[in-house]
Amino acid sequence: MSGAVEIVDYxxxxxxxxxxxxxxxxxxxxxxxxxxxxxxxTAVPGLAAKPVIDIQISVLTLxxxxxxxxxxxxxxxxxxxxxxxxxxxxxxxxxxxxxxHVHVRQLGSFSQQLPLLFRDYLRxxxxxxxxxxxxxxRYAQQFRHDRQAYVQAKDPFVWQIxxxxxxxxxxxxxxxxxxxx
Length: 181
Known about the structure:
Blueprint: H1 13-29, E1 35-39, E2 53-59, H2 66-74, E3 78-79, E4 88-92, E5 100-106, H3 110-124, H4 126-142, H5 147-172
Parallel strand pairs: 2-5
Antiparallel strand pairs: 1-2, 3-4, 4-5
Helix pairs in contact: 3-4, 3-5, 4-5
Protein name: GrpB family protein
Pfam family, one: GrpB
Organism: Micromonospora maris
């Protein structure tokens, strides 16, 4: 990703943006998508974030990709086959549209469950979300022009939140709620 790391105050429009995007994705993907969820910081009310809508599409299997790749490409999304993360398939927004990251992951996998747990924990724990916002703002200022350094700097805090979220999940018997779209 290019450009400066920018963290902005929460925008209620992010939820509206996801609803519009999610509806179009649901129509295009039909049964190929078991779930379509708003993930990432823009999915947590009140949380400062990079103004990027992250969407997770959960599918039964990542291969073959055509069952979800072709409908996404028809909507204009750009498949990033060179994505190094082998537990997901990654798409970017149609050219000229608002920044959107689409993460396609296998339903029930650790990589699919983790962003949902992280999101749900932060939604249920506003103090933790506020801590996270502080960390993100600090590192965005420190590493404004080095996105990789920004991500690496905040990773230890993210994993600290994941450990808290795991304990919370065990105490309450957390499971993902219904799909967002």
